[in-house]
Amino acid sequence: MQDIRTLTIKDFAERLGLSTATVSRAFTQGSNISEVTREKILSEARVLGYVPNQTARRLAQRHSRLIGLDYPGNADVLADPYLVELARGVQKAAQVAGYGLLLNTVPRPGGDIELLREWILGRAVDGVVIVVPRDFPLESLDYFANRDIPCILITQVSSPGGCTLPSVQLDLEEGAISALTHLLRLGHERIGFITSNCSDSVHRIYSEKLREAGFLDTKLIVETESTTGGGRAAMHRLLAAPVHPTAVFCRTDIIALGALRAVREMGLRVPEDVSIVGHDDLLLAELSDPALTTVRIDTAKIGRLATEQLIQCFRAKADGTAPALNNVSTCVGTELIVRSSTGPALKAKVVTHQNRFDTVPQSVL
Amino acid sequence: MQDIRTLTIKDFAERLGLSTATVSRAFTQGSNISEVTREKILSEARVLGYVPNQTARRLAQRHSRLIGLDYPGNADVLADPYLVELARGVQKAAQVAGYGLLLNTVPRPGGDIELLREWILGRAVDGVVIVVPRDFPLESLDYFANRDIPCILITQVSSPGGCTLPSVQLDLEEGAISALTHLLRLGHERIGFITSNCSDSVHRIYSEKLREAGFLDTKLIVETESTTGGGRAAMHRLLAAPVHPTAVFCRTDIIALGALRAVREMGLRVPEDVSIVGHDDLLLAELSDPALTTVRIDTAKIGRLATEQLIQCFRAKADGTAPALNNVSTCVGTELIVRSSTGPALKAKVVTHQNRFDTVPQSVL
DNA sequence: CTTCAAAATGTAATCGCTTACAATATAATT
DNA sequence: AATTATATTGTAAGCGATTACATTTTGAAG
User: Fold this and answer.
1) What is the pLDDT of residues B106-153, one digit of tens each?
2) Alpha carbon of A83 to those of A106, A172, B68: distances in Å?
3) Full-model pTM
4) What's the rounded Cα separation, in Å, for the pair B362 and B365?
5) A290: cis peptide before it, omega within 30°?
6) Contacts B289 to A, Cβ<8 Å
7) Which residue is nearest to nucleotide D6 (CA to C1')?
8) Chain-wide mean pLDDT for chain B?
9) Number of CB pairs < 8 Å for A and B?
10) pLDDT (tens digit per residue) in B31-63
11) Residue nearest to nucleotide C20 (CA to C1')
12) Which of A350, B152, B282, B329 lies at 20 to 30 Å from B246 by C-alpha?
């Protein structure tokens, strides 16, 4: 087969005995063109192998039909299950609306912001979803507010600083509150907390709830990195105490998995001896044994919402409607998923009746 | 802050009292321009906020610096851990070489091939990595051979049909052979096989190896879907037989996890009563308890190799060197990772000595 | 102080498509 | 059949860059 040279609209139009304008119109919805010629052009295009050059279209139409996803400070978006899930939501919403998804490109000498500049000021994409890491200085993004290219941020409610860009915010309170309430209702009094970062709203809720209940004991708080190894070590430390906690709330599922292993290593059972609650509801939470009670973040939904909002913004601009998207923010909450890693507190077991049901192995259900 | 209108190269050049050519040269490596003017232009660009329009550049330079990743038949690339891992490899290699990654865009009425047509013939990307599903008719891709836009396929060695595009092939034999050999050496004779699709090289190896050893028994082969539910049900069926297998090779880690749960439900232990081997080495294989012995596929590497080969192809074309990439294919193998879900066969336990070491809980190591 | 090559800059054509506007064909109306 | 409105097509000017080629500067050599 010969190497087929670029077939341009000019060549193609000539061969059909039509003008480039007519051919162009055949490829765009709702243009003034008779249905019969459109059909003819389209079918002829198939046989001759003509496809309009996307880049030229973008230039002429002044938009790329591309959405960028950027996570400043982390080039390897696809390595983090949370970000992948987010990206998935973005991709889906983008696809539905007819937009492609562009992932981080070349690392720029000027750092992360430089990529955004190139994307936004360079019009490489029609809009950008920016996932803001916990400690990112939001102010540095202000530069991009009110540009032609819309941005939307994904942040945590507790994020410090502020900026005038619209955002989808993740509110971790609800799920954390449910988790603690769940444990307290089960009769737990010594509830540990293994966290991966010093301060966020989950930590705050933990302290508040336990103080309210009168059980707060800072010795039960352990900080570690979010790995199974970290979780395991942290749990061992907790179990080494003379009176160990009967329940532990872990800041991430990964930590929870490590904790679970540590409990087993000490010859104890989950949830009979120690209840464990995770956070994030990764795929592995459901697959672990026992299946993890955990706080679910509907991550894909966040990505979807952000993208939908972004696209709505395009439409508004196309309609000439005022953007009016600044300072707007949507909030997404979390929810507790109860599975088999939590049960009544040890001492409660002897006295309550419900216990008999709560300890039926759930895996059989 | 005012909505900032597009600053084009013309406006920008005018404001500097220079020609557009000079400005353009400042932004491209190795052009004839004095270092002092380049510096001046670049710094002025920063303060005025000028960034060259990417789309226009692409059109003029006749390349997009974008690589596409397509998985015909599956719009939701990011939902499958295997594909994510692949995408990750592609993204990394692309990033190193200065290319961005474009994911599937709008579903086309004409089906999956239509997207490829638009990408390749429409020059939306400089090259495409195509992940070919198991039963995909490779012939349909022949259309894209020898075009201006290079493609590379990621396939399984056993894939049917053929096509003239270069590819990176995944060879599953090695790992499967090691897995079976491992089990046979541990003294297992009744080795089950839970598979998710009727015929591929893993299945073939299983049959061959067991026949060789004289232990082949088709009653020990169960087919199911690749979910934990499927694995669990399949394992229950296997365990229901009068004499159950002492080891089971699962076609995917997900199945293996389900199988593991089923074994526990029957009051048996892994690996003491039943050994389990998975396949794929997903993250959860390492995190499961006991950690899964499994066949590792270095998926990211496959993606990376494919991308590197693709990019090499761009360079060759730029240098005017003949492409000569057709029919070239690289092969990537698999390898067995031994963890704690496999141990000596039950009857062997009583007689061998090594057993004492093999059953030490690995989690303590 | 010329002279000439090399370096730096400018001019203008080009990349492949879209789209406002003009021109023509078709249909509807009287 | 003439007239007008409407649907279709053609013409040509962009879109915002790059780059071959022409021109001017610069600097070294004669």
Assistant:
1) 666 666 788 888 899 999 999 999 998 877 888 888 888 877 788 999
2) 19, 17, 20
3) 0.86
4) 5
5) yes
6) 260-261, 264, 288-289
7) A32
8) 87
9) 174
10) 789 999 999 999 999 999 999 999 999 999 999
11) A21
12) B282
